[in-house]
Amino acid sequence: MLCKYKDKMHLCMLMVLLLQLLFRTAAQSCAKSCGQKINTCSCHSTCESLRDCCADYKHFCLDIEPHSGSLLGGTDFKILNATFEQNINLTCRFNSEILTEGYVDESGVGHCITPLLYESGWISFEVSTDGVSFDRSGRWLSVHHSKLGPDYKIILVNATQWQYYGTPDVSGDLKMTWIPSLIKAERVNIELWGYNETGEAYSLNWEAEWKYLYTVGRDVPNSGVFSFTPQIAEKPYFLWDLGIIRVSPSTKPDGAQNVNALWSEEHAIAWHLEEAFRKDSAGWALEKCINWDREEKAMPSFLTEITDCPCTLAQARADTGRFHTDYGCDMEAGSICVYHPGAVHCVRAIQGSPEYGAGQQCCYDSSGAQVLTGDSMGGSTPDRGHDWGSPPYKKPPRVPGFSHWKYDVISFYYCCLWSDNCRYYFSHRPSSDCRTYRPPRVAAVLGDPHFMTFDGVSFTFNGKGEYTLVYSSDRELSVQGRTEPVRFENGSLAKATRLSSVAMREKDSDVIEVRLRGRGDELQVLMNQQVLSFSEQRWIDLSGVFVFSPKATNVTVMFPSGTGLEVRAGDGVMTLTVLLPHDLQNHTLGLLGTMNDDPEYDLSASNGALISLNSSALDIFTYCAGWAVTNDTSLFTYDSTYLLNEYYYAPKHDPSFIPIFSVTEDPEDPLLEPVLKLCAGEGAWFCKYDALNMRSLDQGNATLLAFRTQASTKRDLEPVRSCGWLSPPKHGQKEGTLYLEGSKVTFWCHRGYSLYGSDERTCQADGEWSGEETHCVAERRGNIKMTR
């Protein structure tokens, strides 16, 4: 034996220890282990802030730049913090199945080219240096093509000219521009690609297809500008009427897949259609419209399963859990509502319908009233294909953007824009009015912090810890809040806390956490404990949840159920607004109450006991402490020594932190007079409490503004009664396009017809129209004419 003699014992032990050390070192590699925590080091995303990363973490768990791009592919991203030998065969694999060819530049930096994907959201990718072992990994954000900024796609100059080319009075050269540096080549090809969806509708063989058609410009300088005179395409290419322009290196074969490229917006490619279109575009389009009408009649109806539109613009903008601004018709961005003339703002239902993945679009005029297709070509329209796609994406009609164009937009060109036959289109895409719309319920946490429940109860809780704000076992929804002591400007701790982080999950969705970053007003968003960056995209599709962050102080989180959470930061304090759909009635617990229209149940303890609304501040404090989470149920991230010591290893409710339960209005206090002057009207008590407790008028004012914003949101979401659309009588007309309670609609008949029924009807509080249905009947000799 090796250790037989004593003089060899020390050498034996040294060799054993050395072998153990070598084995442990090899086992601590992050190769194929990203996201995991190993015994003595970590490959998890929290390791950098906790400073316990394995030595090769950056080498195998990849950071990239840029981290997002079009789902059409073609983006060239570089791998950061790693160098490669230039003679290696770099291969990139997306979604564990799609291979693309990478390369190493002269600086030793590795690059991948993203592939064509029929889905949006985070896509996993792996990298191999030998084509066999894919031991490095990262993630790529695949983005809905229309949501990309203009710098990352080809711009069709005068897009209307492109899409109406060949119709009366539209001709001339077409021009496009792009940023040359995004294509790694001196010379490029300009290609036309067409989109279609083939196979039997709603069957397993229904497939999406992007097809290379032909090259418009070959081997042209990569100058960022290209113009051409359109020619009628050869058959069968002119049969394609929906397409996109691609710019790619001229060294690549025509139609090569997954190469460095830029893409234009999808558009109606009128500019290459057959001679028949240029001779009689309206007649050509009518024939297409009638064919589409026939196809629609053969497909199952999706109209019964889509959600109803909000009744007013105020409701539509406030219901952020279910609706989001349509980028093509956004009053704040000043966009022109091309497809909805007369509207000033449109929203889309965030979630596609359950069976068919259909979408809903709701449009409103300058008065805030919903625009209906029965009254206007610019009315609200449902969509067979949701513009933003619908999980699980990939297959028709759920492909983001392109399914919508296939079934809802190109047909609008046929029936409404290239010809005057909207009656066909609107027979299949009628506006959904708001008779069954039910606004969400609202609750909030703001200021020092103060809680406003779904049923209108308000109280203050200044505990330190992590607590359940909303919980629904039936809907598998959990929203948790973390509070921390507030610091005065001199660094000392106040006897008050603030909401510093909110974590949430619905069913098996990604866990989202939104937290204050340091002592400033910037919010940080985490997905499954990994920081999300909004530097490139404002909207991110995740698994079972959507996140929108237009700026660092605003984050909105939306779940498929219609639950929405708005997090705002200002003056060092976080404000949370929670919106719950009506079907969660009687299914909630937590500090934001039992949503059942009875305030008496809002202070329900975690053990089921009821606390009186007249309880003392101390009793309410004790009640709230009972809603502390546990480490087993916590959704929070603990990625710093401070968070570990203060919240993970410490009690979830800190019993040693005793706040000030009330403030006194001392006449000798020099702050009292300006506080009383500031804190008046709605929210005055909360304002005074925070200003005096924190010794800050700014803090009091921030609380007052947050309270009034919350109150305004609640008013905007008050139920509104609708009586539904009224049609004009046959052989007559009507005046009035408002159908809410108190609205009036008047009717009259064309010359030669008499009016029977009511010439004016009023929408009543019970949701019914007054009077009788109106008819226009052909006059007989001797009848009195009733015309206008």
TrEMBL record:
InterPro entries: AMOP_dom, C8-3_MUC4, Epithelial_Barrier/Signaling, Ig-like_fold, Ig_E-set, Somatomedin_B-like_dom_sf, Somatomedin_B_dom, Sushi/SCR/CCP_sf. GO terms for biological process: nervous system development. This is Sushi domain-containing protein 2-like isoform X2. One of its GO terms (cellular component) is membrane. It is found in: Membrane. Keywords: Disulfide bond, Membrane, Signal, Sushi, Transmembrane, Transmembrane helix. Residues 26-67 form the SMB domain. PROSITE patterns: AMOP (PS50856), SMB_1 (PS00524), SMB_2 (PS50958), SUSHI (PS50923), VWFD (PS51233). Residues 281-429 form the AMOP domain. Residues 721-778 form the Sushi domain. Residues 1-27 form the signal peptide. Disulfide bonds join C749-C776. CDD domains: CCP. Residues 441-635 form the VWFD domain. The keyword Transmembrane applies. It comes from Carassius auratus (Goldfish). It comes from the Eukaryota. The keyword GTP-binding does not apply.
